[in-house]
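Example record used in the benchmark description.
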Amino acid sequence: MKNEKMMREAPVWKLLFTMGLPTIVVMIVQVLYNMADVFFIGQGGNAMQVAALSLSGPAFNIFQGVGTLFGAGGCTAIAIALGQGDREKAKYYSSFCAWASVITGVALAIAMFLFMDPLLSLMGANEETAGFARTYLSIILLGVPFTMFGGGLGNAIRADGSSAKTMLIALAGTFTNILLDPLFISVFQMGIAGAAWATVIGNVVTSVLVFLHVKKSDGFTISPKYLTLKKDVSLRVVSLGVPMAGGTVLMCVSSMFSNQLLVKYGNIAVAANGVASKAGMLVGMIVMGVCMGMQPVISYTYGTGDRGRMRRIILETGVATTILSTVLGGVFLLGRETFVTAFLDDPQILETGKFMMLTLLGAPVGGIYQLCSAYLQGTGKVSYATVTSLLSKGIVYVPVLFAMEALAGLPGLVFAGVVTDVISTAAGVILCLVWARQSLEKPLAPVAAEA
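Model output (structure tokens):
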């Protein structure tokens, strides 16, 4: 109840810190999960294992994306329900999120085990990298139900303003992973298998802590008593989660296309991209953290019907994200040599990696793009939110990627991201303006999200 009062009354700048900052930490934590593996594997000097990690990334992101389907959708549905004062409905949403995440996780793991070889081929693995990638994914799949439970329900529990608690839970899992990485990879000489086991154990820790938090909460539950597949619960959660989950899954597919094109320029290019892309991922995750942290506030305010407060939230968050994304992008561009060398001290990878980091030239518009997605999803405009989320992940990116690679080769692959960011942000802003105008003509808090 205290958190709900904060979302209803606190100044926007305060919410940016209390809601946005913890979620930024959670986003950074997700990047650190991936960075830790790349860093410690890279210290062994095996570029092929680093390339294999990069190639395996899309598969791991698919698990997170499907978990987001339930987590992001549940977070939005629960926050709107709490804004409307319907705490009983919020429990139905949380129970559905928990069970759907676990069951879907088991199904996904089994499917990927059965189709491992075709999947590796699709991701761009070759004779030098396929064995490493197979080892990594085979272990990661054992932890998929935990990955999806911790990510799905862990995302949903932000709905009542518990961003700080979510941050602590995520930190515990990440620190477990980071502490185990050097032990498994370097001390026990397990290589890429050690990186996979460290990730799995970290996700198990996160899941256990999420379970304990929900067990003590009076606003959430995973009790089967509240599990239902009725449309007003299941369809609402899934439809609200489609924009973010669809974007994540499509990003994985786009990464596969990108990897297929990069392989043409050799495994050194794949390894360099695996390192350089972490900088862009970190900037994007930090800005996304601000917007995701504010999304429950947007949904809650939408539920209360306070249009004036909604305008202030969007305007001030937009200013904050633009400044943040510009500064972060500039810092990484200026320090790109140091960043790349920290992972792999190889002259060839250094030069290629430094060049690939020029994709950060599109960083200044990234904050606005993420806010557009958060606003549309948080207010339940599913169709617009889905289109916006998919723009930079594939609708715009894939055709731009192939066109620019055909025209300019490797430089075209690098600058395809910049062109995509600009086009996607412009389109997202237009959709937000259209929806803002439409929402003025009808009650602010609908009974159900648009299908």
